[in-house]
Design goal:
326 residues, alpha/beta, Spore Coat Polysaccharide Biosynthesis Protein SpsA, Chain A, 8-stranded mixed beta sheet
Amino acid sequence: MRTLIDWEFRTECAILHSSMPRFSFISVIIPVYDDWIALDQCLSSLSQQAKPPDFEVIVIDDGSTEATPDRILQWGGQLPLTTVRRPHSGISAARNHGIQLSKGSLILFVDADCQLDTNCLAALASAAEVFPKHYSFQLRLVGDCSNFVGKTEHLRLTTLQKHLLQPSGCMRYLNTAGFAIRRSKIPIDKGLFEPAAVRGEDTLLLADLMEHAELPFFVADAIVQHEVPQTLLKRLRKDIRSAFLEGGAYAIIAARGIKVRLSNRERGNMVRSMWRISKQPSIGALAFFVTIIRQFLSRITTLVFRLLHRRSRTQEINPSSISENI
């Protein structure tokens, strides 16, 4: 898998791999719902890891409409693969179930539509050994710049990660397309993810970490490529749907009084940074304008959710409204 490495801040957060840890055992948990073609490519990338630590792969089929295809099961001949089918309960419940089945000292979550760079697991294992005081890790996410929609995703991810990287090397950002956490910090029985969160479960987890004064440590050399729909229309539809469903998670976070959203000033700085990054020949200005449209539509959708949520809550606590409805 080809990835871009021309980040200005790469040297600021590169990991020095002095030696490969022998004690690390990584459990890679991948929830899937009907996305078998993408999962096939994800498993292929895992089979091509260079000098990886010991690891296992756990695929949780969240009640897909068809049985696990043979081509997925055949990866068991090349990978330490476990596939489990469960009734459809959502991505959070699927990940929690994967945690209960796992054996690793380090739990890595990736999505079915992701592909890992050949050095990804080795870089993650090394970071976990070199930085023992950190117990969660955000892997570096990139897009596929071989197509236009992938360029917009790469620009979005690059800007977010660059802008939200802290001087400490930690990231005020969490994306479960490539996120790892030490097993010792997970309440195995309770689960790591809130099952009620249909979407935005990673942001909700970030809020949990922030409550404990912890942010994920950024592992720049552990690269995960996030695939997106090939057509722009499908991408925009997915953005709008995701933004609406994530509203529930943001409502939970707001009720807890935790600030995870960017301020208007931070958004302005990020837009300027995005414009500078878009000048790279591999991305282009058109990708910048389309990414801005994507972000605008997501923001509008979030505001609509807030208004509907606020109206719903007002009706719940207003006796006159209740009597009128009756």
